Amino acid sequence: MPITPSKLLVAGLLGLTLGGCGAADRLAQIGAAPPLSAIQDPTAQPGYKPVRLPMPQPSVATFQGNSLWRTGSRAFFKDQRAQQIGDIVTVKVRVTDKANFDNATTRTRTNNENMGLKGLFGAQTQLTKILPEGTTGEGLVDVNSAGKSQGSGTIRRQEQLTTNVAAVVTQVLPNGNMVIEGKQEIRVNFEVRELIVAGVIRPEDIDTENMIDSQKIAEARIAYGGRGQISDVQQPRYGQQVMDILLPF
């Protein structure tokens, strides 16, 4: 069937529909560097939900007469480390994962079934009337089966990410722990690299330089990726992604 201009137009419109607004935005940015996102309040983003965790009973601060020390205080002098909403803490992202899995499975099964009719009140002599001539009552049914399966799998993974990112305290929980969230964007030529860090930290884990290691973040969410021309080339086209989802083979 010949391809007419109208069919090409329909195919183009279908491609634009599948791409949605994202395709239109990318077409408008041809020849220009990817724009950086505006600085926004993380708590005002769609889908943001305050963290809710089981909390112990809050302790009431007490003051002793003729004493400069306040019960429950973490330091005698004012602490410059992050401790309230809006403060900034530097997260040292240290992700070094290495995993090796090597599995092997072997299964073997052999079955042998033999059934005959050697003596059944003389009825075995009538077999020739039902079965071909020369049939005897021995070994009427002989079934043999054998099965063998063998499988092996190997997984080797090694990931390493080392960088620093500043995060903002978005919530202080009743027990003093803080919820942090930070986002960093770096544009190099026509590629934007994004780093997102979020989780719950303890004030005691922040060092004197107002920095905390990523391994001490509870419910840590760390994402590292990018967008731009190189990332577009590395990703399959929309049509291929749709076919990969729909095709059963």
Q: Estimate nothing, just give the exact number of structural domains.
A: 2
Number of strands: 6
State which percent range the strand residues make up.
Answer: 35-45%
Radius of gyration: 35 Å
**Share of helix, binned:** 10-25%
Give a description of the structure.
This protein has 249 residues and is α+β, with helices and mostly antiparallel strands. It has two domains: 67-101 and 158-244, no CATH class; 102-154, no CATH class. The protein has helices at 5-28, 127-130, 229-234, 238-246, and strands spanning 88-115, 141-172, 178-188, 191-201, 211-213, 218-228. A six-stranded mixed beta sheet has the order 5-1-2-3-4-6. Strand 2 and strand 3 form a beta hairpin.
What characteristics describe this protein?
249 residues, alpha+beta, 2 domains, elongated
Write the layout of secondary structure elements.
Layout: H1 5-28, E1 88-115, H2 127-130, E2 141-172, E3 178-188, E4 191-201, E5 211-213, E6 218-228, H3 229-234, H4 238-246
Parallel strand pairs: 1-5
Antiparallel strand pairs: 1-2, 2-3, 3-4, 4-6
Summarize this, please?
By secondary structure, the protein is an alpha+beta fold. The chain folds into two domains: 67-101 and 158-244, no CATH class; 102-154, no CATH class.
